[in-house]
Amino acid sequence: MSAEEKPLNFLEQLIKSDLEAGVVEKVVTRFPPEPNGYLHIGHAKSICLNFGLALKFNGACNLRFDDTNPAKEEMEYVEAIKQDVSWLGFSWDGEERYASSYFDTFYEWAVHLVNTGKAYVCDLNAEQAREYRGTLTEAGKNSPFRDRSAAENLELLEKMKAGEFEEGAKVLRAKIDMSHGNINMRDPILYRIRKQSHHQTGDKWCIYPTYDFAHGQEDAIEGITHSICTLEFADHRPLYEWFIANLPVPAKPRQYEFGRLNLNYTVTSKRKLKQLVDENYVDGWDDPRMPTIAGYRRRGYTPASIRKFCEMIGVTKADGVVDVAMLEHAIRDDLDKNAPRAMCVLRPLKVVLTNYAADKSENLTAPGHPQREDLPERTLSFSNEVYIDADDFREEANKKYKRLVLGKRVRLRNAYVIEADEAIKDDNGNIIEVRARVIENTLGNKPEDGINPKGVIQWVDAKDNTEFEVRLYDRLFTDAAPDSGDKNFLDFINSDSLVTLQKCYGEKGLAAAAPGEVFQFEREGYFCRDASEKTAGQCVFNRTIGLKDSWAKIENK
RNA sequence: UGGGGUGUAGCCAAGCGGUAAGGCAGCGGGUUUUGAUCCCGUCAUGCGAAGGUUCGAAUCCUUCCACCCCAGCCA
């Protein structure tokens, strides 16, 4: 289905009709992360949505840090977030924005609410406030401080701002309705006292606005037309609208909600991801097993594959769980089309070719990609000793096994057909070497005797190759829903999620692989030269994803 | 017993009163010097359930059921 045939999602339909009806002249969206952690695949969905909408409808999308809580936020995260959004391929409109740069305006607007009798300073502590708030089914009751005069409220607010009260001693609240069915409307908190310095504003403030008192106003200031957030904020929409209606804001943005992404076998909660990092279950936010943008990048996922995935899953208000196989399909599809091919032997088994001169060697050529003539050919060296994968040889096997078997033939990919004569074993009976013969004139030709090999395997010259480390990654969790119900996600960490293989042999051209470059190691999968500083000076390849393996299904039957 | 939201195949998802798109996964087959890719075929008499309106309902109405979110001075 072409792009123009693809049906519009509900937000695209909405924007299209808003544009046609003249409700807005130009669509402006925003991606508003809080800089309290690294971006993950769920954020990628939001990024693709917000930036994608702007692109599709010729609008603009801002990057805005929703930095209203200095206790949790750090500069490290704002830098990482900027890098990740850029890496995904999007450009925000102008400079990045910060909620904190509007703090003066927010304060003026708080004063405005106080002056219009719509906000008051409340002395209830957190516990008391909870009691007064009521429950989901019972109305709350008015705070005893609800009826302070505007003058008194103003004086107290100024003292809060001046740092004259301790944290938690007072808050500024909107005066709405303590019996409202929507708890967000029961006199929500606008400002709290936090005597902490902020990564952007330093020590200028000791009171900070809450999300509710900030978000819609940020949108209004920036001229956001469609403020898109996840479903759990739908309950906040009436409050969002209340502020827009009761404040002298320069525009009237509208909030819309969509269903956040859930992926099976994956945890996407910043808190839990942070725990995995802090407690060393993984090697940092960019560990290739992490569902973070940084993790996928290090793993070898391409920006295009992540964008494709986000397009595939769609945007709706239904909260479902997407099969991680969809993400895997997206990256396989991209890499199959674009990654240059190479050969690598993960578990080397030496094969000595007894009828090939021991002092001879030759250079063979192989296509860079079976379907892409634009990718350069590569040169493979060949000699009388090659490595093949230990899994590709058996002393005996049934007809389904299409690799090297004693007395049988196999094609060495891009090279000759060989026939195995003998398996050499050590004292424990382990096969340590195979002796085989090259079948004459089979480079590019079938055997002249008509006995064709059943299969093709990869190999590497044992005398001229590149040696490196390979890290095989698998899903981080063994359970499809590791954080559902009362489960503890840490109980389901896959102990085999990282298998490190030393002394893997790849064709010699791989020595020139650039950090971050991805190859298909034929018959194995896609592998990315690690680009992390953690492995600087070493040659390490991370497995992005294996090839689809129908043999595994046959074998496991 | 409150408020908000959602139910279309194993999963994601079109559908907007005219007779169930597409993708992922699966299954069967073909091509192949990658057990990959690619190609072909297959996969909902059924749209949470029951009633109703209509010539005609996944779409409209009624009732019911299930699931998700909300009682941070987090976002």
Spell out the blueprint of helices and strands.
Blueprint (H helix, E strand, L loop, with lengths): L9 H11 L7 E4 L9 H16 L3 E6 L9 H13 L9 E2 L4 H13 L3 E4 L3 H8 L16 H12 L9 E4 L14 E5 L13 E3 L1 H12 L3 E5 L6 H10 L7 E5 L11 H9 L14 H7 L3 H11 L10 H15 L2 E2 L1 E2 L2 E6 L7 E6 L11 E6 L1 E5 L3 E2 L9 E2 L3 E4 L4 E9 L5 E8 L17 E2 L1 E3 L4 E8 L24 E9 L11 E4 L3 E5 L10 E7 L3 H7 L1
Parallel strand pairs: 1-2, 2-3, 8-9, 10-25, 12-20, 16-17, 18-21, 23-27
Antiparallel strand pairs: 4-5, 5-6, 6-7, 11-24, 12-15, 13-14, 15-22, 18-19, 19-20, 23-24, 25-26, 26-27
The structure holds one RNA strand of 75 nucleotides.
Q: Percent helix among the residues?
A: 25-40%
Q: Beta-strand percentage?
A: 15-25%
Distance linking N and C termini: 36 Å
CATH-defined topology of the largest domain: Rossmann fold
Query: Which strand order do you get reading across the main beta sheet?
Result: 10-25-26-27-23-24-11
Gyration radius over CA = 31 Å
